[in-house]
């Protein structure tokens, strides 16, 4: 049995077509300036996110995967409007929210919530669970105290917690339970979309599955749309409908889950997948593993053209000179590479040097 | 690194000018805003019931009839280039750095300060040596033997040390060691150059009294810093290498724990060099601090200006050195 | 007797809330040239075990009982000085986070020099540095003579862990303990480091103990596996046997709760229910019974009797579970295997 979350929020019916993307991001850029020298001039910038586009359909899950420095967490913060984008456009439910002020964001805030990585530091240790989960109601002034308590207890139960733990403090809960509290808080205002940044990576292995299943159930029940950021490729495959692979501030490959995981086309995606250790006797076949050399380069001064060329075993001159555009080589599956792997027969080769992509 | 030092130095110089301007404004602008006339100011230089002519002459000679910014300019000019005052037919040249003449004694201020500076330096540096040594040692032992009798006892004493005002500890130590038991009788300052033994002997009590306060402060700081660093992962690595515990504590633990303490030490010392007011007064040491008290009691503006500027100078310089030192001590700051 | 022999090890911490039984009667052996993977979640006692072997538990509140023998030499109760002489020379350790594990104020080279010199007191500066550069080169740091003069924060994450490995191996130890050596690293860098550890182990022939929560990492490196739960050994045996025919319901749970890259995507993950136990109030009987779906299959035994490690019928493969062999075989065949 499930409890309905009747919080009495009256939404104006939208006139957009029901299948229009809930979230559209285009040309999104975030540079963090680095200042130096006598006059504190801006000498360079951390190009955390450097021109990305993606859309998220209602009720779907987009997974964003990549290693440290790829810009996935910054992307989450930009979408949540916790950071100010340097350039680009974020459209949520048809509204341009790219540069909305804090106050103007408030009405969208109910529909757009976030779940954080660390359930230990993202909950105020001096507040009770009731106060933490009830805070969104109080901030938006939409319920009486009695009503808040009822709603919070319903939320706790929905997230697999004991509603009687309303008056307990975060330290009385285990890591997995705290993450459930974090999810309950995000759900309080019945959002349409939840952005979750590494929602399970701080949890024990046996607990990760509990939270993944909880997110699954909530999506089915409440029709939620997710953007899930994670470094764990297996977790991302499990939770996502579509997956975007990021490398140094760019999306290098994006596609439907099955297509992307069965036939990864970007060499980076291929290497990333082959690097994941698997729990089977003897591990992976070492001959089939692609071992990349070196670490991820710094996003302060990323390699020119294709950013992966410094570590790519297929790199040629063109990769150092021309940035490959995202091309749709399979249905709904785009890749930014001059020499993609698993290329379907009949697709055109690399873009010519004559028309460089800007 | 070079650009950093230059930037900090320029900032320090600018800061010194700002401080001098504010000080000047407090002592010369505020009284005037409060209604004191330049005649009243001039009256401080001449005796009781001056004749109007004498007042006017003093006003003119000292420039009190000029606009304030001119006066400030002359003040700054005096510090860097000297200044000549005209008393009727006489002209007296006040050498660089000129802080003017005392209202009361009519003697140039700066030589009086340079005369007193060695006393303050002796007090501050002597006490600093003691407090750094005892404070850090006690702090380290307390941290390593956390919860032991030594730790509790020394932290109890340290709490007393930071809470007891220095005029109290000074008077207690004076009455015990100087009067009652006469271990250090008849305290009076003897210059180091004249008789080093007598210099030290007469300063032991002020040193210890002043160091007591700071040792307590530094013991607590060191203890907290050591507790934090000794819990760091790299300490575990040092032990895993098989290093001696002494090497682990000193080379790995203390090295990291002391970095913030060095910076605080710089600031404390800079503050004291501008005059350890309470200690000097309690022990009747003829230092800069005592001079400052005297200047304030006598409302002797040029002296107050000089002492304040000097104190600001020491603090700004100490700040600058600390900033530079921090870069030297912490490679993470140096290379980023 | 094995090169490293741990016998009935107990490690407890006294806290205000009570006694924490971090390691509770653990026994295992490790030969030179072999790699043992110790797997467990937080609070399973795996890191506490490794620190006990290294003699790095220093708090007055910790109490260590049992036997730890390194090449026949008893470490529990040995003088701290005797254990110190072994640390860094005969047994060395690398840690999870190479950034915080290196001293921020000293160059990487100097920190490795120091590790060499402490056990080679007669070595001069030049000899130590030559050795340092040689080790840095061996672990794959380009331009090692120049990079030795860099500070840790000037290294990338992967390079730092390589430097940590160089430091651990500088005295050619017989036992290397790696505590979550790749947890703080990116996946592509993790693959490099795992590769490096495997190569070095073959080259140096030392005994390696890998502590990790990641079954995949264990599968990559380990010859033998020890699964820990609540300070005890739940299951141990050769990696091939443990991964192909796991015996303990906890191991089953671990294997089926993680999404796997080498399998088709499952519609739904099967988590282990409940929470890891408190080590102050460890459940009576089998510590896993509150989370075990099969605890009731053998009456009340799981609730009041602590299971001992017993033979599974496969060589060297032991399990601490009350399930009868036939019941276990049936459950594994019918319920668990299809999920894996």
Radius of gyration of chain C: 21 Å
Shape, per Cα inertia axes of chain B: globular
Give the strand order of the largest sheet of chain C, numbering strands 1, 2, ... along the chain. Answer: 6-7-8-3-9-10-12-11
* CATH 2nd-level architecture of the largest domain in chain B: Orthogonal Bundle
In short:
By secondary structure, chain A is α/β, with parallel strands linked by helices. Chain A has ten helices and twelve strands.
Question: What this model shows, in words?
Answer:
The complex is a heterotrimer of chains A (about 350), B (about 325) and C (about 350). Chain A is α/β, with parallel strands linked by helices and about 350 residues long. In chain A, about 30% of the residues lie in helices and about 20% in strands. In chain A, the strands form two sheets. Chain A has an eight-stranded mixed beta sheet with strand order 6-7-8-3-9-10-12-11, with helices on both faces. A four-stranded antiparallel beta sheet of chain A has the order 2-1-4-5. Chain B folds into two domains: about 1-95, no CATH class; about 110-335, Orthogonal Bundle (MetI-like fold), CATH 1.10.3720.10. In chain B, strand 1 (about 85) and strand 2 form a beta hairpin. Chain B starts with a helix and ends with a helix. In chain B, about 35% of the residues are buried. The mean pLDDT of chain B is about 85. Chain C is built from 13 helices and twelve strands. Chain C has helices at about 45-55, 80-85, 100, 110-120, 125-140, 145, 155-170, 185-205, 215-220, 240-245, 250-255, 300-305, 325-335, and strands at about 5-15, 20-30, 35-40, 60-70, 75, 90-95, 175-180, 205-210, 225-230, 230-240, 310, 320. In chain C, the strands form two sheets. In chain C, strands 6-7-8-3-9-10-12-11 form an eight-stranded mixed beta sheet, sandwiched between helices. A four-stranded antiparallel beta sheet of chain C has the order 2-1-4-5, covered by helices on one side. The two termini of chain C are about 35 Å apart. The relative contact order of chain C is 0.14. Classes of the chains: A alpha/beta (about 350), B mainly alpha (about 325), C alpha/beta (about 350). At the A-C interface, helix 5, helix 6, helix 7 and helix 9 of A face helix 7, helix 8, helix 9, helix 10 and helix 11 of C.
């Amino acid at each position: 049995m499930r409890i309905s979350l009747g919080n009495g929020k009256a939404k104006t019916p939208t006139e957009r077509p029901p299948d229009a993307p809930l979230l559209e991001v285009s040309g999104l850029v975030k540079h963090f300036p680095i200042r130096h020298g006598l006059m504190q001039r801006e000498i360079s910038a951390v190009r955390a996110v450097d021109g990305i586009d993606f859309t998220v359909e209602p009720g779907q899950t987009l997974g964003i995967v990549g290693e440290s420095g790829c810009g996935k967490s910054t992307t989450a913060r930009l979408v949540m409007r916790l950071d100010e984008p340097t350039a680009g456009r974020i459209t949520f439910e048809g509204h341009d929210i790219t540069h909305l002020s804090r106050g103007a964001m408030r009405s969208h805030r109910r529909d757009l919530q976030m779940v954080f990585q660390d359930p230990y530091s993202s909950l105020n240790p001096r507040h009770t669970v009731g106060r933490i989960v009830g805070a969104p109601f109080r901030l938006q002034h939409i319920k009486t105290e009695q009503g808040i308590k009822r709603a919070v207890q319903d939320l706790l139960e929905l997230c697999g917690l004991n509603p009687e733990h309303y008056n307990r403090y975060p330290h009385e809960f285990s890591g997995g339970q705290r993450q459930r509290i974090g999810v309950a808080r995000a759900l309080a205002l019945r959002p349409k979309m939840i952005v979750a940044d590494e929602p399970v990576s701080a949890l024990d292995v046996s607990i990760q599955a509990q939270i993944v299943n909880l997110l699954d159930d909530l999506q089915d029940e409440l029709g939620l749309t997710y953007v899930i950021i994670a470094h764990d490729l297996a977790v991302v495959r499990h939770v996502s409908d579509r997956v975007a692979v990021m490398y140094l501030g760019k999306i290098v490959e994006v596609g439907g889950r099955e297509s992307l995981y069965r036939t990864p086309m970007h060499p980076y995606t291929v290497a990333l997948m082959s690097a994941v250790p698997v729990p089977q006797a003897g591990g992976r076949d070492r001959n089939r593993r692609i071992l990349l050399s070196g670490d991820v380069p710094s996003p302060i001064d990323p390699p020119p053209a294709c950013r992966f060329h410094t570590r790519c075993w297929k790199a040629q001159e063109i990769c150092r000179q021309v940035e490959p555009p995202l091309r749709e080589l399979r249905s709904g599956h785009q890749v930014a590479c001059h020499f993609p792997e698993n290329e379907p027969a009949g697709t055109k080769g690399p873009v010519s040097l004559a028309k460089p992509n800007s | 690194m070079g650009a950093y030092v230059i930037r900090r130095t320029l900032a320090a110089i600018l800061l010194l000018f700002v401080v001098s301007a504010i000080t000047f404004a407090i002592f010369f602008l505020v009284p005037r805003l409060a209604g004191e006339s330049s005649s009243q100011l001039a009256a401080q230089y001449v005796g009781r019931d001056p004749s109007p002519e004498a007042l006017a002459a003093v006003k003119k000679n000292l420039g009190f009839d000029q606009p304030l910014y001119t006066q400030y300019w002359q003040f700054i000019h005096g510090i860097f280039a000297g200044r000549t005052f005209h008393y009727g037919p006489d002209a007296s040249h006040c050498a660089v750095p000129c802080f003017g003449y005392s209202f009361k004694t009519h003697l140039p201020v700066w030589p009086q300060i340079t005369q007193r500076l060695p006393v303050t330096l002796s007090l501050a540096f002597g006490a600093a040596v003691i407090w750094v040594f005892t404070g850090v040692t006690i702090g380290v032992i307390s941290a390593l033997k956390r919860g032991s009798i030594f730790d509790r006892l020394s932290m109890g004493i340290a709490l007393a040390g930071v809470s007891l005002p220095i005029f109290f500890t000074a008077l207690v130590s004076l009455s015990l060691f100087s009067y009652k038991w006469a271990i250090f009788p008849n305290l009076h300052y003897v210059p180091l150059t004249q008789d080093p033994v007598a210099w030290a002997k007469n300063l032991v009590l002020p040193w210890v009294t002043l160091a007591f306060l700071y040792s307590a402060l530094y013991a607590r700081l060191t203890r907290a810093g050591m507790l934090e660093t000794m819990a760091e992962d790299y300490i575990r690595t040092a032990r895993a290498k098989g290093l001696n515990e002494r090497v682990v504590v000193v080379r790995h633990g203390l090295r990291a724990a002391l970095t913030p303490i060095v910076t605080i030490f710089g600031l404390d010392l800079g503050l004291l060099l501008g005059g350890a007011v309470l200690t000097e007064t309690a022990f009747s040491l003829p230092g800069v601090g005592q001079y400052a008290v005297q200047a304030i009691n006598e409302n002797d503006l040029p002296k107050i200006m000089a002492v304040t500027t000097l104190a600001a100078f020491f603090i700004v310089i100490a700040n600058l050195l600390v900033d530079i030192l921090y870069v030297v001590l912490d490679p993470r700051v140096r290379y980023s | 007797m094995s090169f490293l022999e741990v016998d009935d090890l107990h490690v407890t911490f006294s806290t205000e809330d009570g006694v924490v039984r971090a390691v509770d009667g653990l026994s295992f052996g490790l030969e030179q040239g072999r790699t043992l993977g110790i797997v467990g979640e937080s609070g399973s006692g795996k890191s506490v075990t490794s620190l006990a072997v290294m003699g790095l538990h220093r708090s007055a509140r910790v109490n260590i009982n049992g036997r730890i023998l390194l090449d026949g030499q008893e470490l529990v109760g040995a003088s701290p000085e005797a254990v110190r002489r072994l640390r860094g020379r005969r047994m060395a350790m690398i840690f999870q986070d190479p950034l915080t594990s290196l001293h921020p104020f000293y160059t990487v080279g100097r920190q490795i020099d120091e590790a060499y010199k402490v056990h080679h007191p007669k070595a001069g500066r030049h000899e130590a540095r030559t050795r340092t550069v040689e080790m840095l080169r061996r672990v794959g740091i380009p331009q090692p003579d120049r990079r030795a003069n860099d500070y840790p924060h000037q290294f990338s994450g992967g390079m730092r862990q390589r430097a940590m490995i160089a430091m651990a191996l500088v005295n050619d130890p017989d036992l290397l303990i790696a505590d979550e050596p790749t947890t703080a690293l990116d996946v592509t860098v993790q693959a490099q480091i795992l590769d490096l550890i495997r190569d070095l182990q073959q080259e140096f022939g030392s005994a390696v103990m890998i502590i990790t929560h990641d079954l995949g990492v264990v599968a990559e490196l380990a010859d033998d596996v020890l699964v820990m739960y609540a300070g005890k050994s739940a299951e141990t045996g050769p990696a091939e046997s443990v991964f192909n025919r796991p015996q303990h319901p906890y191991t089953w749970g671990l294997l089926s709760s993680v999404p796997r890259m080498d399998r088709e995507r499952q519609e739904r993950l099967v988590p282990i229910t409940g929470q890891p136990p408190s080590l102050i109030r460890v459940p009576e009987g089998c510590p896993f019974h509150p989370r075990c779906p099969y605890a009731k299959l053998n009456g009340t035994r799981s609730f009041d009797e602590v299971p001992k490690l017993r033979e599974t019928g496969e060589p060297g493969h032991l399990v601490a579970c009350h399930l009868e062999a036939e019941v276990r075989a049936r459950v594994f065949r019918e319920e668990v295997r299809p999920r894996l």
